[in-house]
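[[Encoded backbone]]
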Amino acid sequence: MSLTTIGSAGYEATIDSVGAQLMSLRLDGGEYLWQGDKRWWPRRAPVLFPIVGCLRNDLATSAQGDVHLKRHGIARLYDHEVVSTTPTAVTFRLDSTDETRAAFPYDFRLEMTYALGEHGLTQTFSVTDTGSVPLPFTLGGHPAFNVPVPGSDEAFDDYELRFARPWTASTPAISDEGIADFGTRTPLIHDSDVLSLSHALIDRVLTITLVDIPDRTITLVGPRSGHGVELDFEGFDYLGIWTAATDAPFLAIEPWRGCATDVNESDVFEEKRGTTTLLPGETGTYSFTIRPF
Protein backbone atom coordinates (compact mmCIF):
# COMPACT_ATOMS: atom_id res chain seq x y z
CA MET A 1 0.00 0.00 0.00
CA SER A 2 1.24 3.47 -0.89
CA LEU A 3 -0.52 6.82 -1.15
CA THR A 4 0.23 9.39 -3.83
CA THR A 5 -1.00 12.98 -3.67
CA ILE A 6 -1.23 15.26 -6.70
CA GLY A 7 -2.38 18.85 -6.99
CA SER A 8 -3.26 21.60 -9.46
CA ALA A 9 -5.39 24.76 -9.71
CA GLY A 10 -6.76 24.52 -6.18
CA TYR A 11 -7.53 20.80 -6.50
CA GLU A 12 -5.75 18.05 -4.57
CA ALA A 13 -6.27 14.28 -4.94
CA THR A 14 -4.84 11.29 -3.09
CA ILE A 15 -4.84 7.81 -4.60
CA ASP A 16 -4.03 4.47 -2.96
CA SER A 17 -2.00 1.87 -4.84
CA VAL A 18 -4.33 -0.81 -3.40
CA GLY A 19 -7.03 -0.98 -6.04
CA ALA A 20 -5.66 2.23 -7.61
CA GLN A 21 -8.50 3.78 -5.62
CA LEU A 22 -9.12 7.50 -5.31
CA MET A 23 -9.08 8.27 -1.58
CA SER A 24 -9.55 12.03 -1.44
CA LEU A 25 -10.60 14.84 -3.77
CA ARG A 26 -10.37 18.34 -2.34
CA LEU A 27 -11.06 21.82 -3.68
CA ASP A 28 -9.57 24.70 -1.71
CA GLY A 29 -9.20 22.35 1.26
CA GLY A 30 -12.81 21.10 1.23
CA GLU A 31 -13.24 17.30 0.96
CA TYR A 32 -15.72 16.29 -1.73
CA LEU A 33 -15.04 12.54 -1.82
CA TRP A 34 -16.78 10.19 0.62
CA GLN A 35 -14.19 9.07 3.18
CA GLY A 36 -15.57 5.62 3.90
CA ASP A 37 -17.35 4.40 7.00
CA LYS A 38 -18.06 0.75 7.78
CA ARG A 39 -21.45 1.73 9.23
CA TRP A 40 -22.57 2.31 5.65
CA TRP A 41 -19.85 1.53 3.10
CA PRO A 42 -16.09 1.39 3.76
CA ARG A 43 -14.88 2.04 0.20
CA ARG A 44 -14.55 5.40 -1.54
CA ALA A 45 -14.09 5.07 -5.30
CA PRO A 46 -13.19 1.51 -6.37
CA VAL A 47 -12.09 0.69 -9.92
CA LEU A 48 -14.50 -1.75 -11.58
CA PHE A 49 -12.82 -4.27 -13.93
CA PRO A 50 -13.29 -6.64 -15.74
CA ILE A 51 -17.00 -6.51 -14.84
CA VAL A 52 -19.46 -3.91 -13.64
CA GLY A 53 -22.03 -5.17 -11.16
CA CYS A 54 -22.75 -8.88 -10.82
CA LEU A 55 -22.67 -12.06 -12.81
CA ARG A 56 -25.48 -14.50 -12.14
CA ASN A 57 -24.24 -16.65 -9.23
CA ASP A 58 -20.82 -14.96 -9.73
CA LEU A 59 -20.21 -17.26 -12.72
CA ALA A 60 -20.11 -17.07 -16.51
CA THR A 61 -18.72 -19.15 -19.34
CA SER A 62 -16.32 -17.77 -21.94
CA ALA A 63 -14.22 -18.83 -24.90
CA GLN A 64 -11.31 -19.33 -22.49
CA GLY A 65 -13.21 -21.21 -19.78
CA ASP A 66 -15.23 -20.38 -16.70
CA VAL A 67 -15.21 -16.86 -15.28
CA HIS A 68 -15.53 -16.66 -11.48
CA LEU A 69 -16.00 -13.02 -10.49
CA LYS A 70 -17.78 -11.41 -7.58
CA ARG A 71 -19.45 -8.00 -7.80
CA HIS A 72 -17.38 -5.40 -9.70
CA GLY A 73 -14.47 -7.73 -10.48
CA ILE A 74 -10.91 -7.99 -9.27
CA ALA A 75 -9.00 -4.76 -9.98
CA ARG A 76 -10.10 -3.31 -6.63
CA LEU A 77 -8.54 -6.24 -4.73
CA TYR A 78 -4.88 -5.92 -5.75
CA ASP A 79 -1.95 -3.60 -5.13
CA HIS A 80 -1.23 -1.73 -8.38
CA GLU A 81 2.31 -0.77 -9.32
CA VAL A 82 3.07 2.96 -9.50
CA VAL A 83 4.68 3.43 -12.92
CA SER A 84 4.89 7.22 -13.25
CA THR A 85 4.28 10.34 -11.18
CA THR A 86 4.38 14.09 -11.71
CA PRO A 87 3.13 16.87 -9.43
CA THR A 88 -0.24 16.76 -11.24
CA ALA A 89 -0.63 13.11 -12.36
CA VAL A 90 0.02 9.50 -11.39
CA THR A 91 -0.31 6.21 -13.30
CA PHE A 92 -0.80 2.75 -11.77
CA ARG A 93 -0.50 -0.64 -13.48
CA LEU A 94 -2.02 -4.06 -12.86
CA ASP A 95 -0.96 -7.03 -15.00
CA SER A 96 -2.71 -10.38 -15.11
CA THR A 97 -1.17 -13.18 -13.06
CA ASP A 98 -1.85 -16.83 -12.39
CA GLU A 99 -4.09 -15.71 -9.53
CA THR A 100 -6.17 -13.31 -11.66
CA ARG A 101 -6.41 -15.90 -14.47
CA ALA A 102 -7.96 -18.38 -12.03
CA ALA A 103 -10.90 -15.96 -11.73
CA PHE A 104 -10.77 -14.35 -15.17
CA PRO A 105 -8.97 -16.55 -17.72
CA TYR A 106 -7.50 -13.76 -19.85
CA ASP A 107 -4.25 -11.82 -20.04
CA PHE A 108 -4.51 -8.05 -19.64
CA ARG A 109 -2.73 -4.92 -18.55
CA LEU A 110 -4.81 -2.27 -16.78
CA GLU A 111 -3.28 1.17 -16.33
CA MET A 112 -5.12 3.79 -14.26
CA THR A 113 -4.09 7.43 -14.63
CA TYR A 114 -5.32 10.25 -12.42
CA ALA A 115 -4.55 13.77 -13.68
CA LEU A 116 -5.54 17.15 -12.22
CA GLY A 117 -5.99 20.34 -14.22
CA GLU A 118 -8.17 23.43 -14.35
CA HIS A 119 -11.21 21.30 -15.22
CA GLY A 120 -10.83 18.94 -12.25
CA LEU A 121 -9.73 15.32 -12.01
CA THR A 122 -9.59 13.09 -15.09
CA GLN A 123 -9.56 9.34 -14.42
CA THR A 124 -8.34 7.29 -17.39
CA PHE A 125 -8.55 3.52 -17.87
CA SER A 126 -6.08 2.05 -20.36
CA VAL A 127 -6.69 -1.65 -21.07
CA THR A 128 -4.34 -3.73 -23.22
CA ASP A 129 -4.89 -7.27 -24.44
CA THR A 130 -1.54 -8.85 -23.57
CA GLY A 131 -2.69 -12.34 -24.55
CA SER A 132 -3.10 -14.26 -27.79
CA VAL A 133 -6.93 -14.29 -27.87
CA PRO A 134 -9.58 -11.53 -27.89
CA LEU A 135 -10.12 -9.90 -24.48
CA PRO A 136 -13.75 -9.21 -23.42
CA PHE A 137 -14.46 -6.93 -20.45
CA THR A 138 -16.56 -4.17 -18.99
CA LEU A 139 -15.26 -1.43 -16.71
CA GLY A 140 -16.31 1.60 -14.74
CA GLY A 141 -15.72 4.04 -11.93
CA HIS A 142 -17.49 4.15 -8.57
CA PRO A 143 -16.67 7.54 -6.98
CA ALA A 144 -18.86 8.45 -4.02
CA PHE A 145 -19.31 12.04 -2.86
CA ASN A 146 -20.11 13.65 0.45
CA VAL A 147 -23.73 14.81 0.57
CA PRO A 148 -23.98 17.48 1.81
CA VAL A 149 -20.83 18.87 0.21
CA PRO A 150 -18.24 20.79 2.29
CA GLY A 151 -19.52 23.93 3.97
CA SER A 152 -23.17 23.23 3.25
CA ASP A 153 -25.99 22.96 5.77
CA GLU A 154 -28.26 21.20 3.25
CA ALA A 155 -29.72 17.73 3.71
CA PHE A 156 -29.37 14.78 1.33
CA ASP A 157 -32.93 15.20 0.09
CA ASP A 158 -32.25 18.84 -0.86
CA TYR A 159 -29.88 17.76 -3.65
CA GLU A 160 -30.61 17.43 -7.34
CA LEU A 161 -29.08 15.69 -10.32
CA ARG A 162 -29.11 18.00 -13.32
CA PHE A 163 -28.74 17.00 -16.97
CA ALA A 164 -27.59 18.89 -20.05
CA ARG A 165 -31.14 19.11 -21.43
CA PRO A 166 -34.63 17.73 -20.73
CA TRP A 167 -35.12 14.02 -21.34
CA THR A 168 -37.22 11.09 -20.22
CA ALA A 169 -35.58 8.40 -18.11
CA SER A 170 -36.42 5.20 -16.26
CA THR A 171 -34.35 2.64 -14.40
CA PRO A 172 -34.40 -1.15 -14.67
CA ALA A 173 -35.37 -3.23 -11.68
CA ILE A 174 -32.50 -4.87 -9.81
CA SER A 175 -32.69 -7.84 -7.47
CA ASP A 176 -31.13 -8.13 -4.04
CA GLU A 177 -28.53 -10.34 -5.74
CA GLY A 178 -27.64 -7.49 -8.12
CA ILE A 179 -29.25 -8.90 -11.30
CA ALA A 180 -30.87 -6.28 -13.54
CA ASP A 181 -34.20 -6.55 -15.34
CA PHE A 182 -34.34 -4.10 -18.23
CA GLY A 183 -37.81 -5.40 -19.06
CA THR A 184 -39.21 -4.06 -15.77
CA ARG A 185 -38.60 -0.36 -15.33
CA THR A 186 -39.38 2.43 -12.87
CA PRO A 187 -40.05 5.88 -14.40
CA LEU A 188 -37.84 8.63 -12.98
CA ILE A 189 -38.33 11.83 -14.98
CA HIS A 190 -40.37 12.89 -18.00
CA ASP A 191 -39.16 15.69 -20.30
CA SER A 192 -37.12 17.24 -17.50
CA ASP A 193 -33.48 18.13 -16.89
CA VAL A 194 -33.69 17.61 -13.10
CA LEU A 195 -33.98 14.49 -10.93
CA SER A 196 -34.67 15.32 -7.27
CA LEU A 197 -32.77 13.04 -4.91
CA SER A 198 -34.12 11.22 -1.90
CA HIS A 199 -33.07 8.22 0.13
CA ALA A 200 -36.58 6.85 -0.33
CA LEU A 201 -36.16 6.80 -4.11
CA ILE A 202 -32.84 4.99 -4.08
CA ASP A 203 -33.93 2.59 -1.35
CA ARG A 204 -36.92 1.68 -3.51
CA VAL A 205 -34.97 0.91 -6.68
CA LEU A 206 -31.69 -0.19 -4.96
CA THR A 207 -29.44 1.19 -7.70
CA ILE A 208 -30.48 3.67 -10.37
CA THR A 209 -29.11 2.68 -13.78
CA LEU A 210 -29.34 5.35 -16.48
CA VAL A 211 -28.59 4.71 -20.16
CA ASP A 212 -27.57 7.21 -22.85
CA ILE A 213 -27.60 10.33 -20.66
CA PRO A 214 -27.72 13.52 -22.78
CA ASP A 215 -24.21 14.70 -23.69
CA ARG A 216 -22.82 12.20 -21.14
CA THR A 217 -22.72 14.81 -18.40
CA ILE A 218 -24.41 15.06 -14.99
CA THR A 219 -24.24 17.52 -12.10
CA LEU A 220 -24.92 16.86 -8.42
CA VAL A 221 -25.80 20.18 -6.78
CA GLY A 222 -27.32 21.64 -3.66
CA PRO A 223 -29.77 24.30 -4.89
CA ARG A 224 -29.23 26.61 -1.90
CA SER A 225 -25.45 26.39 -1.65
CA GLY A 226 -24.86 26.11 -5.40
CA HIS A 227 -22.02 23.64 -4.71
CA GLY A 228 -21.54 20.08 -5.87
CA VAL A 229 -19.73 18.01 -8.49
CA GLU A 230 -20.02 17.69 -12.25
CA LEU A 231 -19.07 14.52 -14.14
CA ASP A 232 -18.32 14.32 -17.87
CA PHE A 233 -18.10 10.75 -19.17
CA GLU A 234 -18.08 10.60 -22.97
CA GLY A 235 -17.74 6.97 -24.06
CA PHE A 236 -19.56 5.61 -20.99
CA ASP A 237 -23.11 4.68 -22.01
CA TYR A 238 -24.31 3.72 -18.53
CA LEU A 239 -24.37 5.56 -15.23
CA GLY A 240 -25.06 4.05 -11.81
CA ILE A 241 -26.44 6.12 -8.91
CA TRP A 242 -26.38 4.55 -5.45
CA THR A 243 -26.19 5.12 -1.74
CA ALA A 244 -25.95 2.55 1.02
CA ALA A 245 -28.82 3.14 3.43
CA THR A 246 -31.60 5.52 4.42
CA ASP A 247 -29.26 7.80 6.36
CA ALA A 248 -25.94 7.37 4.49
CA PRO A 249 -24.41 10.83 3.86
CA PHE A 250 -23.01 10.12 0.40
CA LEU A 251 -23.99 9.48 -3.19
CA ALA A 252 -22.05 7.32 -5.65
CA ILE A 253 -22.17 8.51 -9.28
CA GLU A 254 -20.67 5.76 -11.40
CA PRO A 255 -19.75 6.03 -15.11
CA TRP A 256 -19.90 2.52 -16.59
CA ARG A 257 -19.04 0.79 -19.84
CA GLY A 258 -21.40 -2.12 -19.28
CA CYS A 259 -23.64 -3.07 -16.37
CA ALA A 260 -24.86 -5.97 -14.26
CA THR A 261 -26.11 -9.16 -15.92
CA ASP A 262 -29.70 -8.84 -17.09
CA VAL A 263 -32.25 -11.46 -16.08
CA ASN A 264 -32.85 -12.25 -19.75
CA GLU A 265 -29.17 -12.46 -20.75
CA SER A 266 -27.27 -15.68 -21.21
CA ASP A 267 -24.35 -16.53 -18.94
CA VAL A 268 -21.85 -16.26 -21.80
CA PHE A 269 -19.36 -13.60 -20.77
CA GLU A 270 -18.81 -12.25 -24.27
CA GLU A 271 -22.57 -11.63 -24.61
CA LYS A 272 -22.87 -9.34 -21.57
CA ARG A 273 -24.55 -6.02 -22.24
CA GLY A 274 -21.98 -3.32 -23.03
CA THR A 275 -19.01 -5.67 -23.39
CA THR A 276 -15.88 -4.29 -25.07
CA THR A 277 -13.56 -6.71 -26.88
CA LEU A 278 -9.93 -5.97 -27.70
CA LEU A 279 -7.78 -7.95 -30.14
CA PRO A 280 -4.34 -9.24 -29.06
CA GLY A 281 -1.97 -6.31 -28.68
CA GLU A 282 -4.78 -3.75 -28.90
CA THR A 283 -5.25 -1.00 -26.28
CA GLY A 284 -8.48 0.78 -25.39
CA THR A 285 -8.49 4.09 -23.47
CA TYR A 286 -11.54 5.47 -21.64
CA SER A 287 -11.76 8.60 -19.46
CA PHE A 288 -14.17 10.55 -17.30
CA THR A 289 -13.69 13.85 -15.44
CA ILE A 290 -14.89 14.96 -12.00
CA ARG A 291 -15.13 18.69 -11.32
CA PRO A 292 -15.98 19.78 -7.77
CA PHE A 293 -17.34 23.33 -7.49
Notes: The chain has a mean pLDDT of 96.
